[in-house]
Design brief:
Blueprint: H1 2-17, H2 27-39, E1 45-46, E2 55-56, H3 62-101, H4 106-119, H5 132-143, H6 154-164, H7 169-189, H8 191-220, H9 223-226, H10 231-236, H11 238-248, H12 254-274, H13 287-297, H14 299-305, H15 319-333, H16 344-357, H17 364-381, H18 386-412
Helix pairs in contact: 1-3, 1-4, 2-3, 3-4, 3-5, 3-17, 4-15, 4-17, 4-18, 5-7, 5-17, 7-8, 7-12, 7-16, 8-11, 15-16, 15-17, 16-17
């Protein structure tokens, strides 16, 4: 029941902050690029499209533009806006499911996702970066699946990401964070127990070898002692019972578990190693990386010429930015209690979110997509009364309402 209430709360917040019309002039550029991908002429260079003069034409986001153009052909502006709302709604529900899968409580997770929606209200436009709303939580849900084989779904999902938006390296970071969690998390969380388990496994192996040697020696000593090599005799004698008990229970199957964990780590490492090859499946091939390289090398030029890439200190402060920074700080602070100190994956995502949130307002939604699930999980592990939790949830929802109203007004004024 609580989960259904949380989902309804997320959808209600989404309906309250979204503007049911075009809110960004770039939508016409996206539609033109989608028409070009549909069947227009092949363009080699365009001196007006990019921030760098006479840049080679490349559009690694062609699939997202094609989807917007298809919606435009089907139903005009209403269909494009409907596609945008559907993408963000699915993404918000997936973010909520990801927070629950990470271990968060239902209403607290819903309140954090409402903050995500409210802080992103001004950024929810007809652009291809809205696919991040569903791609990031979808990646994390696959990584958190209890069935390791389902992780191979990340390969087609990563190829789809590379054709929808140029932020596909974020997927690599998600896989790497999960790999670090599985490789180092268990040892870092329970180092004394892990050490004792390792010693117990070594002792189990040595005692098992001693039992085999004892059987062979008894068999070689002739008929009077050959019967001692029987497993039943070893099990019934006092030394035999000790050997049997120490060699099997409770660590007799730990080596098999270790092999299974090793296979999972190798599988995840192989998936991570294949990810850089996935963008090559796009029509631009290796040119997809040129788009990413342009944003890295020409970052200063972009910050000087494009408003949305300007540093935060050069733009007026908004409630959405304040809410974003508060959530990021709360996520970082949530790793201070003892119960959360050894959560490797969550800490990596929180640090990445903090780095992104401090750059430009454009990266604020992505930062929240990274930090909300680990923050929800960390809060659930804290010891607090239900009254304190309810009061904190109410305060968070009130802050989200204020930020959402300001973001909606900002989007509607364009």
């Amino acid at each position: 029941m609580a989960r259904a209430v949380g989902a309804a709360l997320v959808l209600a917040a989404l309906a309250a902050v979204l503007v049911p019309r075009f809110t960004d002039v770039e939508v016409f550029l996206r539609l033109a690029l989608g028409r070009l991908a549909w069947g227009g002429p092949r363009v080699a260079h365009d001196p007006f499209l990019f921030s760098v003069a006479d840049g080679r034409f490349s559009n690694p986001e062609w699939l997202g533009d094609l989807a917007f153009f298809g919606a435009w052909r089907a139903g005009g502006e209403a269909a494009v806006v409907g596609l945008r709302v559907a993408i963000v709604a699915v993404g918000a529900l997936l973010a909520y499911a990801c927070a629950l899968r990470s271990g968060g409580r239902a209403l607290e997770s819903a309140a954090l996702v409402v903050c995500l929606v409210a802080a992103s209200a001004a950024r929810v436009t007809e652009r291809d970066d809205i696919h991040l709303f569903w791609l990031v939580p979808a990646y994390r849900l696959v990584l958190l699946s209890p069935h390791p084989r389902r992780r191979f779904a990340l390969l087609p999902l990563g190829a789809l990401w590379a054709n929808l938006h140029g932020s596909f390296p974020v997927g690599w970071a998600l896989v790497a964070a999960r790999l670090a969690e599985e490789a180092l998390g268990a040892c870092s969380r329970n180092s004394p127990a892990a050490a004792s388990d390792a010693l117990a496994q070594a002792s189990s192996l040595l005692l098992g070898l001693r039992k085999v040697v004892l059987r062979r020696r008894c068999a070689r000593m002739g008929p009077p002692l050959a019967s001692l090599a029987a497993p039943s005799v070893l099990a019934t004698s006092s030394p035999g019972r000790r050997l049997e008990r120490l060699a099997t229970a409770p660590y007799g199957n730990r080596l098999l578990v270790d092999r299974a964990e090793r296979r999972r780590l190798i599988q995840l490492a192989a998936i991570l190693a294949l990810h850089p090859l996935l963008p090559l499946l796009s029509p631009d091939g290796i040119g997809t990386y040129r788009f990413v390289w342009h944003h890295v090398v020409d970052g200063a030029a972009l910050a000087a010429q494009v408003n949305e890439w300007r540093p935060l200190d050069s733009e007026p402060a908004t409630l959405a930015e304040g809410l974003t920074h508060l959530l990021v700080l709360a996520a970082l602070a949530s790793f201070l209690p003892r119960a959360n100190r050894r959560r490797v994956e969550g800490l990596v995502l929180a640090v990445c979110g903090a780095l992104l949130a401090g750059r430009t307002a454009r990266l604020g939604p992505l930062a929240l997509l990274l930090v909300v699930p680990p923050l929800a999980a960390n809060l659930a592990r804290l010891r607090a009364s239900s009254t304190v939790r309810a009061l904190a949830t109410a305060v968070v929802l009130a802050a989200a309402a204020l930020a959402g109203m300001q973001g909606r007004a900002q989007a509607a004024s364009r």
